[in-house]
Amino acid sequence: MPITIPRLLPAREILEEENIFIMDEDRASQQDIRPLNILILNLMPEKEKTEAQFLRLLGNTPLQVNITFLKTATYESKNTSRYHLEQFYTTFDEVRHKRFDGMIITGAPVELIPFEEVSYWNELKEIFEWTKSNVTSTLHICWGAQAALYHHYGIGKQELPEKCSGIFAHRIFDKTEKILRGFDDVFFAPHSRHTGTSEEAILHSPDLKLLASSEEAGAFIVQSLDRKQIMVTGHLEYETDTLALEYSRDLERGLTVPVPAHYFPGDNPNQMPINCWRSHAHLFFSNWLNYYVYQETPFEWK
């Protein structure tokens, strides 16, 4: 089944070229089916790139999915046109009365700022609390995962000696968890962050379960015991060249950053990276939509 997106959304052309099955609102309204309603709070600067990354993964399942993009009202993006935001995004006040089957809260380039000093932190805290009663399952990515761990469970973040960037091997701790169904014993995933989260604190939390971790990059997939809150500290949604583009951008800004680990062949930035995480990215999002959203959400919210 297709993913339903606005007819004029720029990501539409990208997805059509990749043969992702998509549908606009007009055709979707004629389908006699209960679609999943997914809300995406996009906190990333280059919102159009992030839209395509997540829509690609959400559109590759047998489920029909309606997408609503959410922006912060307390901070206006400087990297995305106002026209794009006004046409394709909504604010929390406009959806707070609604219920959603699933929600994704993306990462954000504010890792080195204390949570309370982030300009939209109070708004985000309100959204976090709202998800407890209005969303079946919420998926938090990178800084979004750190923010959720801090808000919901009191687990903070620590600045790393150097940026954690690269493709890292992960092992899983519980093969019976449905979100890991079909995963290899060892799988690879991208990380890109300046801060980390204590694996020990997660393991000692009575409300959390660590599902996957990397010896080099640390805790990766964490879930609440009721499966309503899923935290992923890396970026399964990243495209093949995303880390390369980030590395070039950091160098252009004069930053001292390591070459992304295990990414370029021979650690040579002049070589084309090879994608070794795509299949698990699709599997993860498919499992989330199926087992944590579709199988758990009511047919009609009351």
UniProtKB/TrEMBL annotation:
The active site is at C142 (acyl-thioester intermediate), H235 (proton acceptor), E237. Transfers an acetyl group from acetyl-CoA to L-homoserine, forming acetyl-L-homoserine. HAMAP family: MetA_acyltransf (MF_00295). Its EC number is 2.3.1.31. The keyword Oxidoreductase does not apply. Pathway: Amino-acid biosynthesis; L-methionine biosynthesis via de novo pathway; O-acetyl-L-homoserine from L-homoserine: step 1/1. It comes from the Bacteria. Substrate binds at K163, S192, R249. It comes from Mesobacillus maritimus. SUPFAM superfamilies: Class I glutamine amidotransferase-like (SSF52317). It is found in: Cytoplasm. The record marks S192 as: Important for substrate specificity. It holds the Pfam family HTS. CDD domains: GATase1_HTS. InterPro entries: Class_I_gatase-like, HST_MetA, MetA_family. GO terms for molecular function: homoserine O-succinyltransferase activity. It catalyses: L-homoserine + acetyl-CoA = O-acetyl-L-homoserine + CoA. The gene is metA. Its main location: cytoplasm. PANTHER family: HOMOSERINE O-SUCCINYLTRANSFERASE. Belongs to the MetA family. The record marks E111 as: Important for acyl-CoA specificity. Keywords: Acyltransferase, Amino-acid biosynthesis, Cytoplasm, Methionine biosynthesis, Transferase. This is Homoserine O-acetyltransferase.
